[in-house]
Amino acid sequence: MTNRAAAALLAIAGLAAASAGQQARVNGSSWMHDIWQTAALANKTLLDITLPGTHDSATFTLQDHFAPGSNALLEDIVRLADKLGINAYPLVIAWATAQNITLKQQLDAGARFIDLRACWSEPSEADPSAPTGWHTFHMVLGLPIAELLDQIAAFLDEAPGGEVVVVEVTHLLGSNATTQAQLRALLEAKLGDHLVRGMQFNATLQALTQGATKSRVLVLLEDWDGDGSSTGLWPDALIRGEYANQDNVPKMAEWDQGLIETLGGTGHIFRLWWTLTENVDDIVAGVLDPSKYPTKLFDLVRLANAQLAGWAAANRNYTLGNLLVVDDFENSPALEIAVADALRNCLDDPQLRARSPSGDDCRSWGIAGDCAASGSHGDFVRAHCRRTCLQC
């Protein structure tokens, strides 16, 4: 375990001290299976836990081809530079790379949410050598979707049972009804029996994994309104939570603070992005003065990841998303935060779970000091708001 991971565990003060030893020994490839009993995962749902995940998950390998319609101005600049004998693709790729390890390695490291930005690519007048087919992208093309699904399937095949992965497939640039149908067929063919179907997405983990004997993948697909319980492909409208679109930590944290104060307990999968977003000024500044300004996305990522554990500790009474999404997953404390939260082994009553900064719910009562109140109301709060009152 890294020093950062150890620091994260220390930072999540108030977590059950008895489970600290188990946290320290967490194995990323099987962590849900390993804490199944201790964290009482069987009767919890995806809406009751936090899964750590990766943003722009497939950017570990990128190509010198722009995704269709991704950024016309940037595309023109890079192609103009190419005519002048300047290869600007390395600069674009430096700012597009959010993960350094493969999907299989991310899952083995403990990630349980995969963010796939998909596009249909084919040769064009502007790029006659572009590959044909479904690829991932972040400004530029990544690997074929088929190869990435093989990595996810390989992890699920090897997992001991009890692991649940959420995969969101979005954007679908350059596609039409025909190619989108091909994508759905590809998802079903590659992930097959691992798909969550025949039940609701918010079934208990016991049901999803057949008592921790199977590992499953919940696939959420943009522009799709089909019946997930029969097809195994679910509408991504089930997810709530947009990213901050900021390039500095304080503004991003302020945005996320607003999300945790409003989205917890709404009945949707709550996605929390702990990620920074570059802008043109960042890129230009790094080119003009690389000794003073960031020259790649990872320069911003380090700033964000260094502050995640402290922010999580300060907000430990909140749901930090059902999906806690980060860049550079292997060097973030996201897994330790998720495991520590699961090992608290307690939940507020679903009808009383935090829903607003103030009002008639567990968070409001906790802020008002009602956890220590005497009389029947105080007894009620302590009985129904164990998470908020830190009595678990």
UniProtKB/TrEMBL annotation:
> What top-level branch of life does the organism fall under?
Eukaryota
Record keywords: Ligase included? Answer: no
The protein's GO terms of the molecular function aspect are: phosphoric diester hydrolase activity
Keywords assigned: Signal
InterPro entries according to UniProt: PI-PLC_domain, PLC-like_Pdiesterase_TIM-brl
- The signal peptide here is 1-21
User: Which GO annotations describe the biological process of this protein?
Assistant: lipid metabolic process
Tell me what this protein is called. ShKT domain-containing protein
